[in-house]
Amino acid sequence: MGPTSRLVIAAAIGLALAVPLVVAVLVYRRSAGRGTGRRVAVSAGVAVSIVLSQVLAIGGLVLVVNRDFGFFPTWSSLAAASEDDNPFAAVAQPASGGAMTTDELKQIRVRGWAPRKVQPPKGDGLYRDYVVSGVQSGTTAKVVVWMPPGHEHAANAKGLPVVFVLGGAYGPVDNVATSLQFAQKAAPLIRSKQIPPCVAVMPEVNIKLPQDTECTDYPGGPQAYTWLARDVPAWAQHTLGVVQPGPRWSVLGWSLGGYCAAKLHAAEPQTFGSGASLQGYFAPSVDGSTGTLASVLQRDPALLQRSDVAWLLRNRPPARTRLLAMSSPADAQSWQLTQQFFGATKGLPGITPMVVDNAGHTYTSWREALPRTLTFLLKDAGAKG
Hints:
Rossmann fold, 9 strands, globular, membrane, nine-stranded mixed beta sheet, 2 domains, Esterase family protein, alpha/beta, AB_hydrolase_fold, Esterase-like, 13 helices
């Protein structure tokens, strides 16, 4: 019986109602016949009852929210979260080591990049901070780059394959670099030759906070799709010297980033030869945070189609589809949408499902899925050409 069980939630709500009353009755009975002391005890009992009521009510609310969003489906996943610096995806978190100092900005102006304040363990590569100005999108934002072991101090990453790494809604790119622990997961795979040395490019996805752009170009607004599909790849090839976009480029993401990753592979296969969506979705998730996107999609059926990954794969399939779609029955945010996607693309080649039991919608789940995901994406990336 896990934390999402209806019985557990009902018990928590029941305790919120019953415990304060029981405390009040016990205090009243034990303090009978004591005059002033009785009144003080009763007052203290009322205060304790109010505090307990609030604590238990909040606990019940937290359990309901956890059930609806699928953060922690098991008690073990909840316990693991206590050791996670940033366990949530869909909740805004403070940037971890992200705010750049005047000295770091000066380094970027002088040599083009600065080492991140938070680095992986020695031998697991190096994180670099860049500030990128996109010509086509008109967007200027941070891009974090991971240089693999053996290339920490190289002037560039000449000829290396590329993995784009895209975070979720409201998760700044600084948390993408540190909370995912990309370096700690990728470096051992490289040392054991399970994957070739590669460069991870982590662009800011949330370029117009608090608005959620859903990786879509808004008429007259932020050009989020152009930023990811055009500007950052062009910058990476020119600045980092990586291999030309194509079969040796891949893109992965989770939650909102999972949608972006699937969309980029389906719509831009000439740039991203493979993709992976970890507990993501496959069409724009329109809500109050997406501004006018709902009305924009209603007025522009062509944009609506281009934003639907299943439609793209059915009607404009890549020459070679290589898409990994990971979800979990325990994840209320992605499971049903992923199943719908599998149904809409049934019979189409190149779509690989990855079902994980008891995976909450958290960085913990995505870290655990990362080795298998990278092995899938980089299987053929070591070959030249």
